[in-house]
Amino acid sequence: MTDQTPAVETPRPADPAGPADNAPVVPSEAIDPDQYMTYEEFGRAFFEVAVTAERLGAALGALAGEAFQVGPIPAGPGGMVKVRADVQVHEPAISRQLGDLITFTVRLPLTIGLLIDLKLDRLHYDVAGLITLPLTVRCARPLQLRIEVEPPRPSDVFVDVASRNMRGELIRNLAQVDAEIRRVIARTVAQEIEKPEARKARCIDVSAELSRALEGDAGAAADEPEENAEPETAEPSETAEPGEPAEPVVAVQEPQPTSEGDA
Predict the structure, then answer these.
(1) Residue 263: what pLDDT?
(2) Inter-residue long-range contacts of 90-93, CB under 8 Å, 24+ positions, other chains counted
């Protein structure tokens, strides 16, 4: 009688080398094509995120809060009048304009203590001032962001002098105090923004900052302990029986040969 039992196919063992190279790769998470952008779009978006009014305010932090003294400077006909001013710079108000170029307008409020020396008399004024600085963000080789500042002109400085009487108003106009103060303040602020530390704060080396960030991440990952690492255990002595402590090893010093005289 013939055996009619169907043959059972033996399953093939799994290939230890893994799936074939031409096997389709299924992404773990689908990516929306709208999330992609061109290199040019990425660069523009990076600029708008990297250079904000808050970051620019931090770069100008050295100038904000600065106090300096102007004069005494000669003013009026023949320089007969001496003018001195104590200037205090306050926190800036910054606005950003997005166009073909990213530009900023920085307004620095001032308070000025003004003294006009007439030799026979001295006049004091309480002065409120304002400096307007236009800034432009540019990119430079190899991979830098630079914030360019146009040096202020006297016309960029607004000074509002509050005279206490008609005589002070007349003397102020005669000595052309307002124009002289604007000129000196504009020159002083231009010198401040061109100092090496101020210029350094307005230049961002993107390549160096990126390398520093990547090196920091790599160092932090290397410092993390491995989760599956097993603690090291001391190997038992070969002569110790299981469950019994190993006997301490005592070093035995060999006797040294004596000299012939000692013998």
Answers:
(1) 41
(2) 90/64, 90/65, 91/57, 91/64, 91/65, 92/57, 92/60, 92/63, 92/64
d(CA 44, CA 136): 14
- Listed as own residue / partner, the contacts of 187-193 with beta carbons closer than 8 Å and 24 or more positions apart are 188/68, 188/70, 188/87, 189/63, 189/89, 189/108, 189/131, 189/133, 189/152, 189/157, 190/151, 190/152, 192/63, 192/66, 192/68, 193/63, 193/133, 193/149, 193/151
Q: Do residues 66 and 192 make contact, with C-beta atoms less than 8 angstroms apart?
A: yes
Q: Is the pLDDT assigned to residue 252 strictly greater than 60?
A: no
Residue type, 76: G
Give all domains of the chain, ordered by start, each with its CATH number.
65-216 (3.15.10)
What is the phi/psi pair of residue 234, to 5°? -75, 135
Q: Model confidence at 130, in pLDDT bands (50, 70, 90)?
A: very high
**CB neighbours of 59 closer than 8 A, spacing ≥ 6?**
147, 201, 202
| Contacts (Cβ under 8 Å, ≥6 apart) of 198 | 62, 63, 192
> Can you tell me which residue has the tokens 């231009």?
190
